[in-house]
Design brief:
Blueprint: H1 3-27, H2 31-36, H3 43-54, H4 57-70, H5 76-91, H6 93-98, H7 104-112, H8 115-148, H9 152-204, H10 216-220, H11 233-247, H12 252-258, H13 264-282, H14 285-295, H15 308-316, H16 320-360, H17 367-392, H18 398-422, H19 428-450, H20 458-464, H21 467-484, H22 493-501, H23 504-507
Length: 514
């Protein structure tokens, strides 16, 4: 691959990010601008921004890598990523916006009237955000190493520096513009090469993987069949779907965007548009995994399956056209890293700022200028920890790490949100016990998987995809403990439930929670 083309494409994406972020700086003056873009983002613009930050390294590179390695079962990943928004639309999107909260911890405190639950939610937001940031930095390092031969730390450092500049410049207002534009960059970068590669495949007379004979390719193309790296396929598939469908509502960088809508109706319209935009993107990502089985039957020692999207153009159309297509894909991949990392950084920064730095300063904060400076300091902490961790943690497939983040979110915030929005008998000990239980179980499974504990048997499958057992346990603990502690149900629970479900015109829920 011609590295000059790829480096030029990556540079253009990085410069565009900085320029758009600078425009956002001119519009960001108040604390509300930095946290929730003053709640004036339209549904269409917000939907593009949500898709921009949601389509991460796992989507742009990881899905193709999983399809390439494990076969057609992995097609459930893009399905699950998209269906999660349908669950979010039906169950929590509008009530969350009506809560008037800035962050998930704000919602937890408003619903349960407990600082302890808020602190627990804050720690979970930071943990999930950092776990989700890991593959963004690793993916950036992999991309520049693949297309330009640069050491992995170069890609990680570029993403960290640009994200800090964009987030520190204008907070949520700035990042909204950046992410909306980057969604369309990513859609263009993934779709145009896919059409050209499919055209070349059709003209070249190459068979599809499922027509290429028996053996491993025949097994690769059959769903729910155990073979090679894919063991206990039925359990793994359904547990993955459960994590993706229920984990979306617990991702802090996704939920914080709904607080930028003017009202609950706009939040619903945003979610519907998100489903359409995600569906358009995910049509193309599996194409690279399927074509990879044809043109790259072996990647060679030390080459990760996540790089198949970047390597495929040269294998299908060698020469200048392959170089150009590879450069387009490299630029799109960097847009994915930058936009997702930016959204995660904003959400984690908000929590570190409000729930960790503020208490240390005893909340003696003066004016918007001081708060904005504090926000920028918190953003450095939000990026520094996962940046360092990405250098020392083992290399795990990008989509697998993101899947573990989904499992942790589904096992902690999903019970809190669903029960908090729809069940007035949720008590403070019940919510805390459910989050603690689900968080400990899912986090332990995630750490064990990242370090290769469990092997290829049932233990490995249960740890690699824990959602099928951690989510029911978390729900059960929350309900049982709540029923056992009726005296600890918040005194204002019914009033809060009315706020969550009644139109804003009746409750004034458009105003932030104090």
């Amino acid at each position: 691959m011609n590295s000059a083309y790829a480096v030029s494409a990556v540079t253009l994406v990085c410069l565009a990010t900085l320029v758009i972020g600078a425009v956002g700086l001119r519009l960001s003056r108040t604390t509300s601008d930095f946290y929730v873009a003053s709640r004036v983002v339209s549904p269409g613009w917000n939907a593009a921004a949500i898709c921009g930050e949601y389509l991460s390294a796992a989507s742009f590179l990881g899905v193709a890598g999983l399809v390439y390695t494990n076969g057609v079962d992995m097609l459930w990943y893009p399905v699950g990523y998209t269906v999660g928004y349908l669950v979010l639309l039906v169950l929590v999107a509008a009530p969350l916006r009506r809560s008037g909260a800035y962050t998930l911890p704000d919602f937890a405190e408003a619903r349960l009237e407990s600082r302890a639950v808020r602190l627990m939610a804050s720690l979970l937001v930071v943990g999930i955000g950092w776990l989700y940031l890991l593959p963004q930095f690793q993916g950036a390092g992999l991309t520049l190493a693949t297309v330009a031969g640069a050491p992995p730390w170069v890609g990680r450092t570029v993403v960290a520096a640009i994200v800090l500049a964009a987030v520190g410049a204008g907070g949520m207002r700035s990042i909204t513009f950046v992410q909306a534009v980057q969604y369309w960059i990513k859609l263009t970068a993934i779709s145009i090469p896919a059409f050209i590669l499919l055209w070349a495949w059709a003209r070249g007379g190459q068979p599809a993987p499922w027509d290429a004979g028996g053996g491993t390719l025949a097994e690769w193309s059959r769903p729910l069949v155990d073979h090679g790296p894919r063991q206990h396929a039925t359990y793994t598939t359904y547990s993955t779907l459960l994590a993706l469908c229920l984990g979306t509502m617990g991702l802090p960088h996704v939920l914080v965007r709904f607080y930028t809508n003017p009202d609950g109706r706009a939040a619903r319209r945003t979610t519907v548009t998100v489903i359409a935009l995600l569906g358009a993107f995910y049509i193309f990502t599996p194409v690279y995994g399927v074509l990879g089985r044809i043109y790259l039957p072996s990647l060679g020692a030390g080459v990760r399956a996540d790089s198949v999207t970047l390597l495929l153009p040269q294998a299908v159309v060698p020469g200048v056209l392959g170089d150009v297509l590879g450069a387009v894909l490299a630029g799109g991949a960097f847009a994915a890293f930058l936009s997702t990392a930016s959204g995660l950084t904003v959400s984690v920064t908000g929590v570190i700022d409000q729930d960790l730095i503020d208490p240390l300063l005893s909340r003696h904060i003066g004016g918007d200028t001081t708060r904005i400076q504090q926000f920028r300091i918190a953003s450095v902490v939000a990026v520094a920890v996962p940046y360092v961790a990405s250098s020392v943690t083992p290399e795990v497939p990008l989509a697998d790490i993101v899947g573990l983040a989904f499992a942790v979110a589904a096992s902690t915030f999903c019970p809190l949100l669903l029960l908090g929005v729809w069940w007035p008998r949720l008590s403070v000990p019940g919510a805390a016990a459910g989050m603690l239980t689900g968080g400990l179980l899912a986090s332990a499974a995630a750490i064990a998987t990242m370090f290769g504990v469990g092997g290829s048997g049932w233990a490995g499958a249960l740890l690699a995809q824990p959602a099928a057992w951690t989510i029911p346990i978390a729900f059960a603990v929350s309900v049982i403990v709540s029923l056992a502690t009726p005296s600890r149900v918040p005194a204002g629970a019914l009033r809060t439930m009315v706020r969550l479900h009644a139109p804003e015109a009746l409750t004034g829920a458009a105003d932030p929670v104090a």
